[in-house]
Amino acid sequence: MSKTNFEFFDALGQIARDKGISVEALLDALANALVVAYKRRPDAAEEAVVTIDSDSGEIRVYGQELDEDGNVVREWDDTPDDFGRIAAQTAKQVILQRIREVERDMKYEEYAGREGDIVTGIVQQTDNRYTLLDLGKVEALMPQAEQVSYERYEHGARLKAYIVEVRKTTKGPQIVVSRTHPGLIKRLLELEVPEISSGIVEIKAAAREPGHRTKIAVWSNDPNVDPVGACVGARGSRVRMVTNELRGERIDVIPFSDDPVEMIQSALAPARVREVRLDEDSGTATVIVSDYQLSLAIGKEGQNARLAARLTGWRIDIKSESQLEEETSYSGEEWAEGEWVESDTGEMVWKPAEGGEAISAEEWSNAAEPEGDSSGSEAGDEGVGEVGDEVGDEDGGDEGGASSGEDVSK
Fold first, then answer.
1. Which has more confidence, 390 or 294?
2. Pick from 102, 108, 109, 104: which is nearest to 21 by CA?
3. Which listed residue, 52, 223, 254, 342, has the most CB atoms within 10 A of its CB?
């Protein structure tokens, strides 16, 4: 091996070590680059192959003649005598390009199978469209839709994120990460809870409203291990670490159950459920709670009920005991369909749905009273007086009155 070739191969080995690329891959790139340089010569063969002896450093160019099927029918040594500076410059450019391609492929292969993993990056750039995280060798992209609305990502801050997708592009791998994905909670708990990473405790279901609250259902494969206690930790130390990483997001850990009634009762914690009625045909669960537990079961803006529904897969209808009693009391009544509207005079009147004349509130109230009560009221208040007047008019003052009195006494 000549001194020049020795220096070249030494430099090639240094590049391979620095870039983390195998020497064989670089030699293959070099051979392809030399073929390109050779074919630029006016007297070059249509087909050629370059061989590089890694021991001696000797580089040879062989011209080839192919038949119609692509088989080599003749081959000869066509190494140019002046295969020097121009060829070396061309080879250098192609080698650098090949090195970049190999680096991109290696980066892609490193992250291609890591969808669902958690990574730690440093915030490099953030705006109203996306945030860039430096992962070391590559950058990760966190779109606006994958960011928690109230979180602010300061430049240089360390951040954990969940890999949702790895795309292969001409500029290298594009890694899309998320701070809103429910999988982030699972991975963070795996880091803090050894029982989860070892498989003793499993996370069966999770429902999340990013930045506000998360509910997870856990199950233990060992009867001696409490799954909820393992996740929460002593005095809440384990779950507190996850909450801190999520900047205060509340996490509810509940025991998983195959019984949908028990699962729904647990999912609505911290509210206490009195009764659960399941309608499997519609997939609806009617939940009965005490009156003072109603707002707690529903949660702020319905958050607790929504998360419980996502966690269990049931549509949840929450009712207080008073509401249930009221519905039961009027369940047998027939109600006229219609609506209250304002008349031209500003009075509220009832307008029947099937059409017809609208009635006032007084008329509607009288119509709603039972017939027996209405007739009795009329008889007690007006009936006697009317009879007395009619008798008096016909028979004459006192006699009419006495006659009426006798009839009444009798």
1. 294
2. 102
3. 254
